[in-house]
Design goal:
With 354 residues, the chain is of the alpha/beta class. 35% of the residues lie in helices and 25% in strands. The strands form 3 sheets. The chain has a 9-stranded mixed beta sheet. Helix 1 crosses helix 10 and helix 4 packs parallel to helix 5. It starts with a strand and ends with a strand.
Length: 354
């Protein structure tokens, strides 16, 4: 494919970030939009400046349209499976939001359907394309900290005067276990964090988790504070610490949340200090300590939207050259299995082996 023609199934708040690269990349265009609220799809088409796209409230019409090559599934989690199966059956490439399904059994169905389909299946992941993360990975691959031994990820929701407006309906379905599949921070957002850990360290083989619950002033229930510890092969370890800080002010244009990463090796330590938002006016995106010297890496893009831009660009290029985009369906399923194992560990009060 020289030009990837894209159809969006779901045009909610997050679709604005997914659209950026498709709108500017010369090898892609958005040709169809589907939403159960067709007027919302029409508004997105106007804001994005699309030229006469197909607008529909029925995703079967979109996936069956011969102008669509790639289907972006941007729906609540419980609706991912049926939409993805329909697109795969229609011969389309599919990019589905994480987590791909609300059960491992359904994820198995999606992976199996993709096995014989003409177009590839990818589970959308942007964190591993965020420039500070890519910078840190490049340093590690060059041996900057020796052999990586541990990884610590801190996920910190708070409050913000500058965050974007998330519709009440979008927050509501994330409180419905049948629609979200698990906790909004450990299973849903945690999928990104586990993908990050795998990106730096490879897949984990055991997990032990403690998951708390905190109610925000607006009534939203967070599965935090939580601590998810994991063990990798070869005597290496990691943890994800999730803390909801209701009075922590975060400067952001997107979600009122920030993430930090620390990776320790046999020779040094790397910190990624920027994520969704900004804690402080002069935060250095990436730092390396080695041989007694602390080195700052400031010349790194930090806008959160860049993670979506580079992830989408990667997908476009993969489809153009016939390769598998990250994450593969199998990768997405394995990370989902780990997230469910973390929740099972918290319920059982002990470690769970994968």
């Amino acid at each position: 494919m020289d030009r990837i023609r894209v159809g969006f199934v779901g045009t909610g708040r997050i679709s604005d970030l997914h659209a950026i690269e498709y709108l500017s990349n010369p090898h892609a265009e958005i040709v169809a939009l589907c939403d159960r609220d067709a007027s919302l799809a029409e508004r997105r088409a106007r804001v994005w400046g699309l030229d006469s796209p197909l607008i529909t409230d029925d995703y079967h019409e979109l996936v069956g349209h011969d102008t669509v090559d790639l289907v972006e599934v941007l729906l609540p989690h419980h609706l991912h499976l049926e939409a993805a199966l329909a697109a795969l059956e229609a011969g389309k490439a599919v990019s589905v939001q994480k987590p791909m399904c609300t059960s491992v059994a359904d994820a198995d169905r999606m992976v199996e359907a993709a096995r014989g389909a003409p177009g590839p299946l990818r589970v959308f992941e942007n964190f591993v394309f965020y420039p500070p993360v890519v910078q840190a990975k490049s340093l590690i691959d060059d041996g900057a900290i020796g052999e990586p031994l541990t990884i610590r990820i801190k996920s910190n929701p708070g409050r913000s005067e500058t965050e974007w407006d998330v519709p009440a309906a979008s927050r509501a379905w994330r409180q419905d276990i049948d629609q979200i599949g698990g906790g909004p921070l450990v299973l849903d957002d945690g999928h990104h964090k586990f993908a990050l850990a795998w990106y730096f360290m490879g897949p984990a083989e055991e997990v032990h988790a403690w998951i708390g619950h905190t109610t925000a002033p607006d009534g939203f229930v967070f599965d935090a504070p939580s601590m998810v510890s994991f063990r990798f092969p070869g005597n290496r370890y990691g943890n994800l610490e999730i803390v909801y800080s209701p009075e922590l002010d975060i400067v952001t244009e997107h979600y009122a949340q920030d993430d930090r990463i620390e990776i320790t090796g046999t020779r040094g330590v790397i910190w990624v200090n920027r994520g969704h938002g900004q804690l402080g006016a002069d935060v250095v995106p990436v730092q390396l300590f080695r041989d007694g010297v602390l080195t700052d890496y400031r010349d790194v893009e930090t806008g959160w939207e860049t993670s979506f831009v580079y992830s989408t660009r990667h997908c476009i290029e993969a489809l153009r050259n016939g390769s598998q985009p990250q994450l593969s369906g199998k990768d997405g399923r394995d990370i989902l299995r780990f997230a469910f194992a973390a929740e099972e560990s918290a319920r059982a009060g002990g470690a769970v082996r994968l």
